[in-house]
């Protein structure tokens, strides 16, 4: 007898386990054959059922929530819709007054989100401003990049914004190295011809003359060469660029600082501080009270051995907490010295 093990991912914050298997998205193998491979919708990329289904326009949210509504897609699963609604309300409240937030539950599990949500604003100006925002969830929620679409004006954000910014930051490093070796050979160069002989790749892989990454990250070449830590490598005098005295080891250290600085700037752009404090959640019940709600056929809640193990567990956690506090205090003393 062969036993098959069902793999289910655990959920948190009140969500239940996923009780269904993952289904691959439908892809037409032969686009020309309508008999064996039915046509797919351009809106949701699903099979078109002409007999039992009705066509969808993708703007059904405006009929329910109003014109100042944003449609959010690619929301993470493994969280309850209420948890995501609370988080989305605190994020979008920075752009204006939010009237309603709705995350649709999954058809097979009401404690999971199906990946689609709607956020409605009172004013149209606030909704348009929020439509172009870049919302990226933290790694604890799978680092999901949320696609935002304004249902009234069809304005969308750029889901590839973070990938493009990291690509431009990577190309900046190559441009700095190329300019460094160029000035070693020539000694100096004019600001008008600084990009001559320097090349980079755009986001789609094509090789082009250097300058796009500089414009996207620093607006122009002067800001690029005068901001820290680039001013430690190059110097501008009379519209000419000169190389300061640096070795390759010091250049690598400065470039590491530059990479860290650009990543910090990107994270600060993605993190929007909310004006509304989070909702106060009730304190969790003690473990003893939680055990009393369990059935006696699973745990012998009045067994002396079980109570003794619970006591040992509590003491062990207390010792671990004291040990962590001691290490933190010792680390603070060493840093101050």
UniProtKB/TrEMBL annotation:
<dbReference type="Pfam" id="PF00076">
    <property type="entry name" value="RRM_1"/>
</dbReference>
<dbReference type="InterPro" id="IPR035979">
    <property type="entry name" value="RBD_domain_sf"/>
</dbReference>
<keyword id="KW-0694">RNA-binding</keyword>
<dbReference type="GO" id="GO:0003723">
    <property type="term" value="F:RNA binding"/>
</dbReference>
<protein>
    <recommendedName>
        <fullName>RRM domain-containing protein</fullName>
    </recommendedName>
</protein>
<dbReference type="InterPro" id="IPR000504">
    <property type="entry name" value="RRM_dom"/>
</dbReference>
<feature type="domain" description="RRM">
    <location>
        <begin position="68"/>
        <end position="153"/>
    </location>
</feature>
<dbReference type="InterPro" id="IPR012677">
    <property type="entry name" value="Nucleotide-bd_a/b_plait_sf"/>
</dbReference>
């Amino acid at each position: 007898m062969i036993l098959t093990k069902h793999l289910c991912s655990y959920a948190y914050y009140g969500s239940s386990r996923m009780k269904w298997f993952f289904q691959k998205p439908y892809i037409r193998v032969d686009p020309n054959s309508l008999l064996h491979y039915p046509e797919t919708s351009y809106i949701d990329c699903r099979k078109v059922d002409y007999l039992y289904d009705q066509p969808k326009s993708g703007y059904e949210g405006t009929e329910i929530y109003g014109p100042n509504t944003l449609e959010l897609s690619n929301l993470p699963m493994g969280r309850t819709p209420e948890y995501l609604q609370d988080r989305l309300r605190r994020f979008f409240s920075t752009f204006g007054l939010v009237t309603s937030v709705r995350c649709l539950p999954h058809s097979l599990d009401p404690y999971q989100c199906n990946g689609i949500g709607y956020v409605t604003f009172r004013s149209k100006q606030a909704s348009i401003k929020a439509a172009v925002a870049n919302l990226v969830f933290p790694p604890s929620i799978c680092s999901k990049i949320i696609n935002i679409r304004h249902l009234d004006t069809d304005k969308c954000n750029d889901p590839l914004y973070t990938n493009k910014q990291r690509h431009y930051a990577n190309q900046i490093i190559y441009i700095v190295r190329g300019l460094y070796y160029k000035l070693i050979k020539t000694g100096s160069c004019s600001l008008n011809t600084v990009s001559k002989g320097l090349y980079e790749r755009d986001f789609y892989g094509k090789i082009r003359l250097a300058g796009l990454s500089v414009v996207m990250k620093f607006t122009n070449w002067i800001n690029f060469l005068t901001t820290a830590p680039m001013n430690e490598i190059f110097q501008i005098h009379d519209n000419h660029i000169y190389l300061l005295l640096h070795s390759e080891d010091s250049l690598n250290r400065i470039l590491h600082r530059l990479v860290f600085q650009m990543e910090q700037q990107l994270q600060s752009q993605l993190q929007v501080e909310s004006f509304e404090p989070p909702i106060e959640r009730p304190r969790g019940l003690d473990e003893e009270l939680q055990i009393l709600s369990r059935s006696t056929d699973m745990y012998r809640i009045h067994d002396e051995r079980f109570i003794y193990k619970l006591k040992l567990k509590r003491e062990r956690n207390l010792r671990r907490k004291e040990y962590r506090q001691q290490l933190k205090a010792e680390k603070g003393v060493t840093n101050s010295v």
